[in-house]
Amino acid sequence: MPWRNRDGREGLTMGMKHWALAAACVSALGLTACQSERMGRLNTQPAPLTPAPVAPVEQEQLPPPSQPDPQPSGFPAAPGEEVSDQPEVASTDPTAPLTPPPGSAPVTKNSLVGSWKTRSGGSTCQMFLTLTKYGNGSRGGTRGCAGDMANVRGWDVKGAQVVLYNENGDTVARLYKSGNEKLDGTTSSGQSVSIFR
Predict the structure, then answer these.
(1) Phi/psi class of residue 92: alpha, beta or left (left: φ > 0; alpha: ψ in -120 to 50)?
(2) Per the database record, which ranges form the Alkaline proteinase inhibitor/ Outer membrane lipoprotein Omp19 domain (predicted)?
(3) Helix (H) or strand (E) holding 16
(4) Which residues lie across from 126 on neighbouring strands?
(5) E strand residue ranges, the chain
(6) Of 51-55, 71-75, 111-115, 154-158, where does mean pLDDT reach its minimum?
(7) Which CATH architecture fits 109-196?
């Protein structure tokens, strides 16, 4: 309802001005939300790729399996490593302690603390060994490891042997010093494992 101001002219009340402004904004917003068909729909899907030509598949019989070659592998021995004519054979009982290799040096806990690269089962990952008490040994762990090595939670030194444990205290792997900043051994499932820096 219009009202008269001091000059005698008619005008809108403040409340009416706010309602008029709100109605204009809602109408403008409603109009901008409508999609125009003038530009057509935008095609956001990429065009399909044409397949690459494929050569025909050939089929042949495989040769019969052969016995392992008793000859040496042809790889040179690592520095400080003795060459033996006897092939390496895995233990039949993977939980049995390994006999230390001849000349394996004793290991101290302090020399093992820190980060190690671990190779087991063809993959490489990280292992961290600390002096924090964990069960009967010290806390340790792995990152990015698979298989048995993924379960390492603790470790301890037993003479020249480093024993890795899971959270239940079961042996995961046994390692011996095989070089400067390198230890080799086997997991409880019989898989070879190496840690090195």
Answers:
(1) alpha
(2) 108-196
(3) helix 14-33
(4) 117, 143
(5) 3-4, 10-11, 114-120, 123-134, 137-143, 154-158, 161-165, 171-179, 182-187, 192-196
(6) 71-75
(7) Beta Barrel (2.40)
